[in-house]
Amino acid sequence: MASIAYLRISTADQDVASQRLRILQTANDAGVHIDQWVEETASGVAMDRAVFDLVESLQPGDQLVTTELSRLGRSLRMVNDLISKVREKGASIWVLNNNLHLGNGQLSVADEALIFALSIGAQVERDLLRERVRHGIFAAKAAGVKLGRKPGISKLDAHSDEIEKLVEAKVGKAAIARILRCSRTTVDMWLRRHGQN
C-alpha cells in the first residue's frame, strides 16, 4: 500500500512547488508518508499524460493524492473515467482541497454530486478564461497592437554563446535542437540569420 502524489501544471511557466508543499504539509499533519511523486506539465487534453500510466500502475490499497480534482483531468468525463479506473484497481483518491476521500467502496450520492459540481466548475472556469483570452486578443488587434514575437528576434538569441560553442565543436543541427529543446528548423533559421549555415 503506497501513497502517490500527482502534481500537474498546464504550462512550463507554472510551478509545482506550491502543490508539493501543500501535499507535504497535509500528508504530514495526517501522518501519511508520500512514497512516490509524479509531476508533469500537460495541457490536460492529450491522452498520453503520465496520470494514465500512474493509474494503470496502482495496486489495491494504494492512495493517489492530489490537490484538486481539476489536476486529474480537463473535462468531467476524463475526471470520472480516472476515478472509476482508480476504484476498479482497488485504490483510492485523496483530494486535499475538499478533503475528499474516494475509496473503492460505493460512492455516496453526496460524493458523486460534489465530484460533478467540482468538475463542472473547473470546466466552466477554463471556458471563461479561454473566452477572456480570445476577447483580449481581438481587442488588442482592433487597437492596432501587433501580437507575437518581433520580427528578427529568435528565442535562441539568449543561447547564442552556447550555440557558437556547439557549432565550433562540430555538433550537428539535430543535436543542437535536442540540447536547446527546439526544432531543427528553428536552429537552421537561427544559424542562417547569423551567417553560420
Write a concise keyword list for the protein shown above:
48% helix, 7 helices, 2 domains, Rossmann fold, 197 residues, alpha/beta, 5-stranded mixed sheet
Please provide a written account of the structure.
48% of the residues lie in helices and 12% in strands. By secondary structure, the protein is an alpha/beta fold. It is extended and about 65 Å long. The protein has 2 domains: 3-123, Rossmann fold; 157-193. A hairpin with a 4-residue loop joins strand 4 and strand 5. Helix 6 (173-180) packs across helix 7 (184-193). A 5-stranded mixed β-sheet has the order 2-1-3-4-5, with helices on both faces.
Task: Tell me the layout of helices and strands.
Blueprint: E1 3-9, H1 17-29, E2 36-41, H2 50-57, E3 63-66, H3 76-88, E4 92-95, E5 100-102, H4 109-142, H5 160-168, H6 173-180, H7 184-193
Parallel strand pairs: 1-2, 1-3, 3-4
Antiparallel strand pairs: 4-5
Helix pairs in contact: 6-7
Estimate percent helicity. Answer: 40-55%
Task: List how many beta strands DSSP finds.
Answer: 5
pLDDT under 50 segments (min length 5)? none
Structural class by helix and strand composition:
alpha/beta
Number of discrete helical segments:
7
- In CATH terms, the superfamily of the largest domain is Resolvase, N-terminal catalytic domain
- The topology string of helices and strands comes to EHEHEHEEHHHH
CATH class of the largest domain: Alpha Beta
The CATH topology of the largest domain turns out to be Rossmann fold
* Spatial arrangement of strands, main beta sheet: 2-1-3-4-5
- Strand percent estimate: 5-15%
Biggest beta sheet summary: 5 strands, mixed
* CATH architecture verdict of the largest domain: 3-Layer(aba) Sandwich
* Morphology: extended
Rg to the nearest angstrom? Answer: 22 Å
Mean pLDDT: 81
Beginning-to-end CA distance, first to last residue: 56 Å
Tally the structural domains. Answer: 2
